[in-house]
Specification:
This protein is of the alpha/beta class. It has a single domain, classed as Rossmann fold. Helix content is 37%, strand content 21%.
Length: 203
Amino acid sequence: MKKGIFCLEGLWAHDLTNKSTVLPILELLQKGSVCNNIYHTCATREELEFFLNKWKQKSISTKYPILYLAFHGKKGQIYITDKSTYSLNDLAVILEGSAKGKVVFFASCETLNTAGRTIQSFLKKTNAIAAIGYKQEVDWMIATAFELLVLDALQQDKFDSKGFENIERKIKSEYGNLHQILDCRIVVNKHVHFPRKRILKPA
């Protein structure tokens, strides 16, 4: 089953004529029949929370289990505006218990450059299987290429413990040293084992 992407994107610049966006990544994946997406921009805390609450609905998160957050960032946080941030704990509170077996991809500089226990707390509260993100400031074009590859890699196996181990291995071994150049961090939920469901064959 294709794993849809639920993408929320912030404003990248004060200049409203700036057209920087991750939307072409999503369009390429959709036009290539890799996966579908839902995309919205968020310029305020209220907008971010509105769409996160939409994603929490089982009818949406089941079809779109990849939460792709494209914002500016800093340690442990994403920027909604240059004066307004949203922390991993803020996200954990609003998503508490609603991201079982889902993946959260932080397409934001430095967000995962924080203590491992902070990320594990986020995963434990949300029940997500993993968080992916960067520990440093990243180059836009290199990160764009990498994110396209990662979003495709997330389609290659199931979101269970065994499947995500295979996905992580693919990201780290098949795309050269991009994950090292970008200081990409992949953190798997150590509090929960996500077993592979057996498919029962008809008698």
